[in-house]
Structure prediction request, 615 residues.
Amino acid sequence: MAIKSLDALKAKQKEFKDQVSLRNEGTSSSDRIEVLVGLATCGFAVGADDTFIALEKKIKEDNINAKVTPVGCIGYCHREPTVQVNIPGQPPILYGDITEDKVTLLVDVVLKEQKILEEFYLEKTFDKAVL
Amino acid sequence: MDTVVKDTLQYRIALRNCGLINPENIDDYIAVKGYEALAVTLEQYTPKKVINIVKESHLRGRGGGGFPTGIKWELTAREQSDEKYIICNADEGDPGAFMDRSILEGDPHSVIEAMIIAGYAIGASKGYVYIRAEYPLAIDRLETAIKQAKSYGFLGNNIFDSNFSFDLELKLGAGAFVCGEETALINSLQGLRGEPTKKPPFPSVSGFRQKPTNVNNVETFANIPAIILKGSDWFNAIGTDHSKGTKVFALAGKINNVGLVEVPMGTTLRDIIYEIGGGIVDDKQFKAVQTGGPSGGVITEENLDTPIDYESIRNIGSMMGSGGMIVLDEDDDMVEISKFFLDFTQDESCGKCTPCRIGTKRLYEILERLTNMEGSPEDLDLLEELAQNVKDSSLCGLGQSAPNPILSTIDRFREEYEAYAYRTKRTTYAIDDNKCIGCTKCSRVCPVDCITGEVKQVHVINEANCIACGACYNACPVDAIIKP
Prediction:
């Protein structure tokens, strides 16, 4: 459906208020967790697509209220596959080296127990322009 | 959140959405104010106003040239013509560089939105993204993004109910390096051989189909929506006196944190390499960083604290280029490095002009002669003279800059060239008599059994048989092995 005015565009933006605040600050009116998986060429090269599939499968099997979203490259090629976990009420956290075999560990510790997985914790080293 | 925070060093404008939105879902882009800059432009700004915002932002071409983007737009806008074109140069080709690919794979809509804005500003109704076929994922995501933008009415007729219409098409290139040069790119786009033509006329006067054409790089476009929404004053507050905003760099080579970084102009190389990049692999000694790809040069330790912008990086003997940064450590041989780049440029030379076609080939042959230990001291003078000639007489940027890796390394590392020219360079490993403790570890790992010696006695490498594999060097517990 075509968007024909600035007002219509802004109305559309509002629909995703929760999604944006969850990704940026970790706040949301819903309690659904979101997991972002870096799926660009650098991620694919080390099997991020397998990580993505395994994450979706595991989350479904364990009946967790979470959504997996493919995103582009966040820039940490040395720690691919990279995954950002956005839990409502907590600051978003980046994890590196999450290959397919680490998915169970990530889901069990980070999504279920809601603890930090120190070994794969990736410090975010950038700030960004917020429009 | 929205200020340049010192302790993070990086500040992302072009990469603001990369890794944070789903590139295949336009709603994810709209959620972060995507297409708002376009809506504001079409509803509130005249084309002249848009050009003024970009001019006042002092944004400069991120493909490496550093030409002011606003002025480029103005030059194309002032031409009278029934049709004009916007082209996005996505023919990224420097070895080890992947800035544009990441932007297109992670945030394709930001580039599309900027191209539509540029079309409105200069009076074009048609745009092309010239992208190399070697980027299949980026192509895929761009195609998806264009389709979605069309379905929302951001591409097509009467965008946001204005009188402005714009359409966008992808054109795939075969991956020739020279096609990153804008006149060669335009030729390739028209189905002609990808060869440059002389300027003037500049594309802003006579470009694609002899019509006024504006060519900008992917990263340049990715900055535009942010500049429109946040204003030129905001952009001017970031960077140095003559280079505003940020630059994306692809860190590669002997560095711990290989990846993409975006830093404000004026950040030092030391901060990029040691703070963001995490230093050199295995804590080895930093030797140089190669910037600007096959057109650039090397920057050594003494200049690591220079704040990086277009001018300063030229003053220290390299160039900004598109943003590739290859970090070299103590083990790297500078003559081999320049041979690598010359091999690349002589292969990628389109062959149209003689200095580049034959000159780069001969330069490569001299380097090959040197590294084969068949060179002579005269070769060094020849190398420098020929390099200067190719630089001075080539038609386009490819040939004019192809000798830079040689000129830069011969200036900083002349002794390495001399070691080859005078044939004093050792090509095999050796053992330091004073350090060897006779532990026998080296002789046990040597794959060609060329190390001999009794236990607790000094060992010796038979240089005639050594294949310079480095196994002994890694095995020695007391650093007694001397590298070639």
